[in-house]
Design a protein that fits this description.
Blueprint (H helix, E strand, L loop, with lengths): L1 H30 L5 H28 L1 H8 L7 H27 L4 H52 L4 H5 L4 H22 L6
Helix pairs in contact: 1-2, 1-4, 2-4, 2-7, 3-4, 4-5
């Protein structure tokens, strides 16, 4: 429990501290366009591009350097938190993107779907974590955590398409550069760590 708590706090800190205030700023900007459906969708699409452009590099970046980050921040006694940060860093990025969907629905005064989604979440969240604990221990909980966040994102995308009229292709089409950049970042980190290990500095 301690490893999960500490690792999750570190993994989510960057996305939470950076993106939550930004989302609060973006919400009224998106809401101002709610009277015009086309402008409302365009404002949301642009806001989503901003969130994706920050969430993916931050979340995946923390995940990629977890084994270097933990010894520096916490010390050798917390090395077990590395696995937590790897999973929760990615989950935090997915959650930040998904939460922007909540902002869109609230700005359009469509809160009922959000309530229905939270009820639906009970049907898969508790069983997922229970199965994770029983069959995988800490690793199982982390896999369940990541899986639940992905399911929540898919549900949000479906709600946005149904109630706002924005398809997934339209919503994420303009943000295609970010996944490519994150992939490039990941390759550079992996190559860098392998090179350092080959030099014998013990960081690999």
């Amino acid at each position: 429990v301690g490893l999960l708590h500490v690792g999750a706090e570190i993994a989510q800190m960057a996305t939470t501290e950076t993106l939550t205030p930004l989302r609060r700023v973006l919400m009224p900007a998106v809401a101002l366009e709610s009277d015009d459906a086309a402008s409302h969708r365009e404002a949301f699409r642009e806001a989503m591009e901003v969130i994706i452009g920050l969430a993916l590099p931050i979340g995946f970046g923390i995940s990629l350097v977890a084994e270097l980050l933990v010894p520096v921040l916490l010390g050798a006694q917390w090395l077990g938190a590395i696995e937590v940060i790897r999973y929760v860093g990615v989950a935090g990025a997915v959650t930040a993107i998904s939460a922007m969907g909540d902002t869109m629905l609230i700005s359009a005064a469509k809160t009922r779907p959000l309530f229905q989604r939270e009820l639906l979440k009970l049907a898969y969240l508790l069983p997922a974590f229970w199965l994770g604990i029983v069959y995988g221990g800490l690793s199982g909980v982390l896999i369940a955590w990541l899986g639940v966040t992905v399911v929540a994102l898919l549900i949000n995308i479906r709600m946005i398409r149904r109630h706002i009229g924005i398809a997934a292709g339209e919503l994420f089409g303009g943000a295609w550069r970010t996944p490519l950049a994150v992939f490039g970042m990941a390759v550079c980190v992996w190559v860098g760590k392998a090179s350092l290990a080959a030099l014998g500095n013990g960081l690999g």
